[in-house]
Amino acid sequence: MHRRSRSGCFTCRLRRKKCEEGKPSCKACTHLGLRCDYKRPMWWSNSEQRKQQKEIIKNIIKRTQLAKKSAPPQPLPLPSSTPPGLTHSVPTSAEVPFAKSFPPNRRPSHDSPYSECDFKYTPELGQFAMPPPPQAYLPSHGQYPTISPYEVDIKTERQIYVNDIPTRKDSTISTFSTYHSPPLANGVQSFSGDSWVQQEHFESMTEQFTEEPVDFNFFEYPHEPQGPDHETIINVDDNDKYLLSHFIDKNMKLIFPILDVNQHGSARSDVILPALESNQAYLHCCLSVAAEHMKATEHVDGEQINADILRHRYGAIQELCAALQADANHTSTLEATLAMIFFQTTVGRPSDAVADIPWYSHFAAAVNLVNKLELPSAAISAARLDQRPPFNMTLSAWIDILGATIVGENPNFADTYRELNLADKSVGLAELMGCEDKIMFLISEIACLDVQKADGLHDMSLCKYVEYLAQEIRATEAASDPVANCFNTTGAIRPRQLTTNLTAVFRVAARIYLCTLVPGYFPAQASMCHLVQQFTELMDFIPAGPEGFDRSLAWPLLMAGANSVAGSTFRVMLAERCGLLGDAANFGSLGRVRELLADVWAMNDGLQPNFPAVRWRDVMKQKNWEYLLI
């Protein structure tokens, strides 16, 4: 029986050929004109995609052999200009002038259910600072400079075992891509025969990549990479199988949509399924979220569904508290705690009355775990060495920064963000959520200034800080690429352009948030109306509808919407886009933001133009809301 080699490049391993492991490209790949991958490519983790890649390689070899027989290949001239990069650097001052005025950022626990747990575990830093595998060399071969599997309408399957029984094959179809669509309508090339050198003639590929290839290794995930033959085994009770199926079919695609655009299937294969398989608290969290989603979307109501929600919430809390009291498994405990916080933002209607622990109580426990695992220093170290940031630190940072603006407190890791910002480094927020790190770090600074204002900062000092932050935001805009249509001519999405567009939306939202701190501000000011109008126009560059990204923009929509006046085109835009989403616009963070904005508008529209507006945080307090609106 043949056993696949566990060494050599992945192309030779796919062909089941011996590889002499030459660097940067092995002799076989160089001779045949193939891409030589020593870093695990994205098609490796799926049997169907491996089969397609094998056929593509056959075609490349055939073309290479025909080209050698007919004439020596003519190299393509180098392009006169290189494609734009994902990030841009701008000069920054050596130190934020008001950084020292901010107090240490350690948020107290708000009656956290984990407050009695003692943390004594200190891991070694090395496990969070693993160097990335060597970058694959991409040789140029005539008119085929880069050959990659197509990602438009590709069906992928994964066998999932429930209680050791192969109950289902979970299938998904990716309808967006960084690549060009193949010549056939179904998105999969068809090749006949098994010979490596085919005799048929195929049409040449004429389209070139419209933007730089994306690096598919963004994060240091908490789980080891799964092999292509790995079968996911999830143990659940029989009466919970329907919840697991619902979560996999309906919820999973809602959780990390931007990561899925940047790295197809990564949220599923690198984050969620490994955790479902190995983390009981995480599994309880997902089953609870599935029950909430089913209740909201399928209008299932009654004692049974509410009992399922509460049962699995309680089960998750029990598992988390047991792990904390045992002072063990801190990484998996943090993973489940972050899921308890973030997954909740994708489900539930505003009218839901099922009891829950506030998100910031969960996050207080998460902050303790992040510090015990030394993830902030690991993130800084990884950034300095151009290594992959810890995934759990990136997700924690997103919750921390935007969550701080919701509750009006300092971000817990503001000092870390400040250090990364001054060094012009990233923690992966753009790759995970779509907004470039520099904008998010500036939002962190605005949140700190918001706290300083509430604590009585003098108006003159406040205006000075506002002016400084406005200049920093302006600098990021000057260095960024222009917004544009994020689809190419084939209808495939361009991830880098999508990130540019999402960042532009967050940038204007940050400006709006900053302007609300200026003494004497009111929404009807001409400058604020201009910003809201600019925000509205930028939303035209964000894909809408069920496959769009409006649900990833709850926070920017809140910032702009809370400062829109009666008759604003923003309100028309929001109504139209929610109409395209259908009932999905009524649950999760977007549904809560819509209801909150409706209440804010009802209170503010009747006020005199120069009268102080009712703040959205005050309306949340009146409604006794403790939601994380991100």
UniProtKB/TrEMBL annotation:
SMART domains: GAL4. It holds the Pfam family Fungal_trans_2. Residues 65-114 are annotated as: Disordered. CDD domains: GAL4. Residues 8-38 form the Zn(2)-C6 fungal-type domain. It is found in: Nucleus. GO terms for cellular component: nucleus. InterPro entries: Fun_TF, Zn2-C6_fun-type_DNA-bd_sf, Zn2Cys6_DnaBD. Keywords: Nucleus. SUPFAM superfamilies: Zn2/Cys6 DNA-binding domain. It comes from Dissoconium aciculare CBS 342.82. One of its GO terms (molecular function) is DNA-binding transcription factor activity, RNA polymerase II-specific. Gene3D superfamilies: Zn(2)-C6 fungal-type DNA-binding domain. This is Zn(2)-C6 fungal-type domain-containing protein. The keyword Zinc-finger does not apply. Residues 72-82 have a biased composition (Pro residues).
